[in-house]
């Protein structure tokens, strides 16, 4: 079985996630796009692990999942707090911390 | 040229330290005791100096009881400085020269302290005044008892400090504060010469003690000795108000009158003469420096006398005369062995009659509500008989009326001057004539003529506590000449300064004396014609000759200093400030401003939009990726 379709899928998912992070305003959507990018990289890691026949890539994928789970916990809490105070989930509205 | 070689002090001479310690203790108690000592502070001040005088007198009598070769004692107190090859002993040297100074300082000093009790009676800060006077006496005694140039320098600076404090004693008057500062600054110029002289001395001889330096003085090269002599002369000019450092003395009259009498007439200003006479072992080997001393003395004696002629302020007229009389002493000191003893002789008689006249002027001011303008005086001889009579004794002494003390001392200097060279002699002779003129003018304007008093002024004789010192000083002014009986003072000082071999002078002394008396008579007569015969205007006439105007402006001494030193210095400092502001500060501030502007522009990148940060992360990642690929593929 060729690994090419997996890598292409991973690249497509990563690009969608990347464009989503850069273009969407809703914080929840941006967040989901970040998850998409993480999972795209997971797919690539696992694919290459299969190709090379060792477990290093799979172990790394587990680490990424753990980090993603932790990030969701913290990130959602921040988004909730911002929404409560500003009545908005737009990332462009939360721009007070600047020059 | 005698070498300083004192024996260890014993007997009464071992009490020498007490002569200094008494007034020093008085100053310490009065300054540290504060207001608690207000009630009796002035009495303590008088007592300490009187105690010193008694000790000095005892020591002097002890000195007279010994042979001429056995009249120098040193008392070692402690080692002051010891650093490698440099060693300064705090020792006192008591020899005939110091002995005479001790008597003058403590004797005249005690009288002036006593006088001040009355003069300063109504001053709320009288206790402090006596503390400063005591401090001055202690410092002056250190100066004349030192046996090392460094110890002498300690006293030298001490009298400078005391002088500053006392000139500016009435510090609420801006003029007094300015005068004090001026005296201090001008004295610093002289002190620079002293400090450099001491350093040169150490570098050359490896010691600064009189004994050591006098022993090896001849071993130095002529250049070094001349430099030493000129540096010490600079120091002497500063302290003794000699041209070119004369400008502070007239302003110093802002201080209370007893200060003018004690410090700026009888004692401190003679320190320069003392220094030259004490350093005779240097000057004897440096003829160029000696000539410089004569020139300074001759110029100053005429300079001061001319200023004295035009002043209407009685104290300033006397200050001009002080400058002139010290010029006489300098001139005599510059003549070498032939003149040292006469310099000291004139110094002593001048100490008597000038202190007498200054205190007399203070007494007059006391009666005239502190007015110093002689144009407001006149006809005071009836109102103040004691002051008038004592002042008259001082007057006759200073103009050199035959028989009075000044006659003997000034006559000797003029004779010695003529024997050395014609110019010095003529300057001294001319000075005697001018002295007679301005002192007669002062006398006539103050005590004779019509009343020109301000309204509401009622002149009265001063209290006993002020007149008694006047009477004593007047007696000394009359009798001071006895020191010359049988050339006593010359023989007495010979162990210190050497003795000139006797030779018959070109002009017989009696002819010389007659010439001097004739010149003095001409001076007195001129004053009578110009001042005594006419009515004295109450305000100084403005349409006067260019000479009078120059003399009124102190012969432009201040203007010269301003044009030569003050304005160029001012301009130089102004330029430095401009350079500092524009150049140094400009570079520093410019750099800071450049970085500030740059960072102001750079911080715009922090725009607060998460998405733009994300974009910059992406761009960064891409750059890194491209760079890695480029490296790997290349």
Automatic annotation (TrEMBL), chain A:
Function per UniProt: NDH-1 shuttles electrons from NADH, via FMN and iron-sulfur (Fe-S) centers, to quinones in the respiratory chain. The immediate electron acceptor for the enzyme in this species is believed to be a menaquinone. Couples the redox reaction to proton translocation (for every two electrons transferred, four hydrogen ions are translocated across the cytoplasmic membrane), and thus conserves the redox energy in a proton gradient.
Subcellular location(s) per record: Cell membrane; Membrane
Membrane topology: Multi-pass membrane protein
Organism: Nocardioides jiangsuensis
Pfam family, one: Oxidored_q2
GO function term, MF aspect, one: oxidoreductase activity
InterPro entries: NADH_UbQ_OxRdtase_chain4L/K (IPR001133), NUOK/Mnh_C1-like (IPR039428)
Similarity comment text for this entry: Belongs to the complex I subunit 4L family.
Quaternary organization: NDH-1 is composed of 14 different subunits. Subunits NuoA, H, J, K, L, M, N constitute the membrane sector of the complex.
EC class of the enzyme, as a word: translocase
Segments traversing the membrane: 6-22, 29-49, 61-83
NCBIfam families: PRK05715.1-2
Domain of life: Bacteria
HAMAP family assigned: NDH1_NuoK
Record keywords: Cell membrane, Membrane, NAD, Oxidoreductase, Quinone, Translocase, Transmembrane, Transmembrane helix, Transport
Name of this protein: NADH-quinone oxidoreductase subunit K
Catalytic activity: a quinone + NADH + 5 H(+)(in) = a quinol + NAD(+) + 4 H(+)(out)
Keyword hit for Transmembrane: yes
